[in-house]
Design brief:
Blueprint (H helix, E strand, L loop, with lengths): L1 H25 L1 E4 L4 E6 L4 H18 L2 E4 L4
Parallel strand pairs: 2-3
Antiparallel strand pairs: 1-2
Length: about 70
């Protein structure tokens, strides 16, 4: 029973990381003002930002990527 639960947990964790990586690749924009890349989270769906927040912290410290909710102004 514990082995099955561990397999399910690992599958869910891999799906979470994989979905974040797919989202990240589709939502990178370069801001003209500072010529840096940002992952832009949609304003109308802030739940995504909070859902992926743990991974953005790790990603930001590992890669230097910046994150922003909504377009730059």
């Amino acid at each position: 029973m514990k082995r099955a639960a561990l397999k399910i947990l690992i599958i869910l964790l891999l799906a979470y990381i994989g979905s974040y990586l797919a989202f990240r690749e589709q939502h990178i924009e370069r801001w003209e003002k500072d010529q840096r890349d940002y992952v832009i989270f949609p304003v109308e769906n802030r739940t995504l930002y909070y859902f992926y927040r743990p991974l953005t912290i790790v990603d930001g410290s590992a890669t230097g990527m910046q994150f922003h909710i909504g377009p730059h102004r």
